[in-house]
Design brief:
7 strands; homodimer; Aminopeptidase; about 160 residues
Chain lengths: ~160, ~160
């Protein structure tokens, strides 16, 4: 079941992000900041909508999406992560489909995802491609020398 | 003379942005927001450094730059604009050189500029190219259908 995240889901969201293994401590801290912004100001004002995939009491994964400032109908998928124990069960795919459906219903036309071009992120990039995203643009050496920023987009 | 903007420069910064003619009301409002953030929290915390080109008491142009989150040594040039009356006098070029020098001194290695791919922005794109920026990436139909997002980069 995919539902808006509630107050008590914060710890799970952070834990799932940390255990993903690809994110730096600074990136995990960023998720915590977005979560805090969302709790403090609400989804509308903060622009960060957190959704969780819940099985009973357990959170198996989450997404965070929101409108991109100054771009008509464009939404960012800021975060998507699935618990290690729930991999290869379609949780990520279901979360992705849900975010796309929400964007569509909000009048969005394009979803933008930013990720890294390093080998460690190949499974991530393959996941986006398999979800129908296009490798739209690359900024070389962005995150660091040898670590490109890759933009994936999907029209929804 | 290029100096850090002071409290009283806010009105000039907003006026120069508005008279540029290419920015929407929403974009002008964004400059006001960044300026307010900078005044409220300071340059370091807000991440927005405003510099003005001053001739006597008059502001002829400004830039706003700051570090890009999660990317090592990358700085965004958020805004650069020159007063209509001061065009073609090297004000923009001097402001650009100053921002690049500041980024370099802060340990930055790459400057990122986002602009539009529409004909109205051709003079802007030509300006970046003439300053040594590379057309690095394009996200089609980003700002709107037929209005691409273009990224320019320069290693400093």
């Amino acid at each position: 079941m995919i539902v808006p995240a509630s107050e008590s889901d914060g710890a799970s969201i952070v834990a799932i992000t940390a255990e993903a293994g690809v994110f730096t401590a600074q990136e995990v801290a960023t998720v915590e900041e977005l979560w805090a912004e969302c709790r403090r100001h609400g989804e509308k004002v903060s622009g960060y909508a957190f959704r969780v995939y819940r099985e009973g009491e357990t959170v198996l994964g989450y997404t965070c999406h929101g409108p991109h400032g100054l771009a008509k109908g464009v939404y960012d998928l800021y975060w998507i992560a699935t618990a290690q124990a729930a991999r290869r069960k379609g949780v990520g795919r279901a979360l992705m489909a849900n975010a796309e459906e929400e964007v569509r219903r909000s009048g969005g036309r394009l979803i933008l995802v930013e990720t890294s071009g390093t080998p460690a992120y190949k499974p991530t990039r393959d996941f986006y491609l398999s979800c129908g995203y296009e490798w739209e643009a690359t900024i070389r050496d962005f995150y660091d020398i040898g670590d490109d920023l890759v933009f994936f987009t999907k029209q929804v």
